Amino acid sequence: MREYILYLKEENKTTQAYITPCFAVDKLFWEQQDGQRLHIIGRSPSLAIAFMLREKMNEHAAEGPIDEAALRRFRKLAESCVRETNLLYGRETKEPKTWFTFSADGGYGTPASKEIDMIRSQAEKLSAMIAGRALLWDEVARLGEQRGEVTVGLEEPLQWLVLQKRAAWQPAVSLRLRKSWLRHRLQAACERCGEQAAILFSFCHRCRQGCAYCPTCINMGRSKCCTPYICVSGEVRSGDKVRRSGVLAWKGALTPLQGQAAERARAFAASERPGGSFLLWAVCGAGKTELLFPAIAHTLEAGKQVLIATPRKDVVLELVPRLQQAFPTVRVLSVHGASTEKWEDGDVIVATTHQVMRYYQKFPLVVVDEADAFPFHGNRMLYRAVQRAAAPGGKQLYLTATPPPVLRKRLAGRTCGGPILSSSTHVLLPQRFHGHPLPVPVRIKVPRLFDKIRHGRPVLPLLNPIRESLRRGKRLFLFVPRIADVPVVHAYLRRQLPACADRIEGVHAADPDREAKVLRFREHRLDLLVTTTILERGVTIPDSDVIVLGADNPVFDQASLVQIAGRVGRSAASPDGLVLFLLEKKTRAAIAAIREIKRMNRLAQSLRRTSDAG
Ligand SMILES: [Zn+2]
Ligand SMILES: [Zn+2]
């Protein structure tokens, strides 16, 4: 069990509190400088408690020499603080007991296991290894093992870096006493993902203390009170940059409109002004990935790294080979939960959102793909992770067909109630790469739609368009709002359309055969796929039609309906198709989605007219 020592450093009559897992290293460090005196206050197995006490000590650090009486005062203060935390933790867990221990005594801990030169050289290796990372203690250890570097006594070189202010550390879940006139309470926060409300208070068998943990990011390894969370800035010094030229091997051509949008994004990435965000707003099927190439190429040629954050693993897997082909001389890494490359370093890193949390102040350019689609409530976690992964002064490029209101308002602004085509913070590309307009959805009201389906009655506004699509040899996505609807609608269609019953399937997120079914659909061994919103974006199948059953259900918001409609007419050979919204009642989302699609078509048309006239 690790213990954390809380001590005061007295220098020129000012006092500051420090925490260390290895006091001997701190002694070695401070001995290099003159005029310091160190006083140990006590020790705790809980890192969160140690940090809370450090804050308390610093608040109360008065001027004047630290004598025995002053030390007693500090120890008393620490003990009363721990008592209060025990009380509040007991209230949270509804189990009053001693959750945290703190031994207020002096002593000097164990001596350093290594010579100072050894610690120094290990610190250099460690710093190079974790630069640009934000990692839990166990992850640092695993990384060290994998690289064949420092593995035992990691505390000592790490503490050396902390004392040099080259690394920062804190408990992965921190505790703070919040005092108010109404009542005092204990506030816990996950330093990795930013979660506060959902933190769970429990007992830990590792530190044998109260130890709150974060359930929100638990699939990345448990973030908890006794685990150190270590952040090391990864900004590359300008001397280390390797400039190169001609990294972009892609020989395709952009349409004039695509070219303008891509140039805007490149100019943003290349501008001398540090920081800032830019919104690349391009309708579904505008050829988004290619629009990024000039901005990525510019950044790589300046010797810098690019991070592309994207919501889902499927998108990572699809994007990496395309980028590697476009940039054959650079290293493109695929970073997701199961990826073997996630601990390595590359030039372009394509990562799922959770993995973005493992980077810290590293990337001069962060691209956020499908900024509205991240599977997080309110996207707060994503924005936080992206901000932390960007290098100081780094730029954030948001790429989406359906910008969430917060981005739209902040970056696209408004003139006379309508979005403008471009500004210094955004560019809007309303036209698809093949130049044809977006298919406009048709809205049909069917009262008691799902009742009729459940009772097996024929719903002609559903069955007739399906028959027509299949007769024309199209493939059909049928979106339903709930997972439970998938088997019901699937069975209903098999009964109503016996001739093609074997070519109808249903999928949802938890379906183990999901990938196989999508593949069969892609290869046209299936005609009709009943699906939840999991296929609303990403999956592109040429020559397909779309029906949304129950488009009035709240799971289909405006962005989701625009994305679904965007599945249709993606190829130049077949730029048109059916988009049908069947609903029981009128909803604002469906109306707004149709209005938005029509507006994009109008904008594209007026742009074409202007360019024809010019
Ligand atoms: Zn968390
Ligand atoms: Zn613990």
Detailed description of the structure:
The protein has 614 residues and is α/β, with parallel strands linked by helices. It has three domains: 4-232, no CATH class; 254-429, P-loop containing nucleotide triphosphate hydrolases (Rossmann fold); 442-608, Rossmann fold (3-Layer(aba) Sandwich). It contains 18 helices and 21 strands. It has helices spanning 23-31, 47-60, 68-93, 116-130, 137-146, 155-163, 256-270, 288-301, 313-326, 353-356, 380-389, 405-412, 449-454, 460-471, 485-496, 514-522, 558-565, 588-613; strands spanning 4-11, 14-20, 36-44, 133-136, 168-171, 173-178, 185-190, 228-232, 277-282, 306-310, 332-335, 348-352, 363-369, 390-400, 426-429, 442-445, 475-479, 504-507, 528-531, 544-549, 579-583. The strands form five sheets. It has a seven-stranded parallel β-sheet, with helices on both faces. Strand 13, helix 11 and strand 14 form a beta-alpha-beta unit. It is elongated. The termini are far apart. Bound molecules: zinc ion (2 copies). One zinc ion is lined by residues 190, 192-193, 195, 214, 216-217, 223.
Number of helices: 18
Outline type: elongated
* Assembly form of the protein: single chain
Strand content: 15-25%
Arithmetic mean pLDDT: 88
Secondary structure: helix percent: 25-40%
Q: Which sequence of strands runs across the widest sheet?
A: 11-12-10-13-14-9-15
User: Which spans of ≥5 residues are poorly predicted at pLDDT below 50?
Assistant: none
Tell me the number of strands: 21
Number of domains: 3
Compounds present?
zinc ion
Instruction: Give the distance, in angstroms, between the N- and C-terminal Cα atoms.
Output: 75 Å
Integer-rounded radius of gyration: 29 Å
Biggest sheet descriptor: 7 strands, parallel
The secondary-structure class comes to alpha/beta
